[in-house]
Amino acid sequence: MSADLTWLLIKNNNSFLIKRSGVQFSSEAGNLLNKNSFKFSGLANNKTVGIEAAASGRGVVLSTKKSGVPAYKPAKAINKVTLSKGIRKSARSVAGLTRAGYRADLRKVRFRSRSRRRCPRLPEARQGCPQEGWQGYPRQQEL
Fold first, then answer.
1. CA-to-CA distance for 58 and 11, rounded, in angstroms?
2. Which one of 30, 65, 88, 92 counts the least CB within 10 Å of its CB?
3. How far apart are CA 98 and CA 114, in angstroms?
4. How far apart are CA 35 and CA 21, in angstroms?
């Protein structure tokens, strides 16, 4: 099924949709900003990039969707890699992935998402995290 047809079917009604105060959010895997739009949809697009915090608390997990896997095997369609070498090396590897043509339109979004997942919001837990607005890290207003 094409990505456009899938989006037409799921955009107004799916199990991941959250409607609050006239704004629609989506909590599916592979949706970097949790916006309910075709560009960020992890369900409708054939190629998705997902960034989550690692279970060990060190590093991030980069997940991409493989092409050519049958639709009836969704678990085998996701490739997950844990990046724990440091913020600069992990950023470089993620940038290499998008530079190679795999969803280049999400290049700026993935860095915002990665920095948010790496650095917690609580002030006492932010030791070693960059200050907001420092060298490409988003300020609170940009989120």
1. 34
2. 88
3. 14
4. 14
Residue type, 61: V
- What lies within 8 Å, CB to CB, of 40 at 6+ separation is 26, 31, 32, 33, 34, 106, 109
Residue with more model confidence, 83 or 109: 83
Query: 97: which 2 tokens?
Result: 């992935």
Neighbours of 57 (CB within 10 A): 7
Residue whose structure tokens are 């960059």: 130
Tokens read off for 103: 């969803």
pLDDT in tens, 30-89: 888 888 999 888 888 888 888 888 888 788 888 888 878 887 888 898 889 898 887 788
Q: Quick one: DSSP state of residue 35? A: B
CA distance 37 to 42: 10
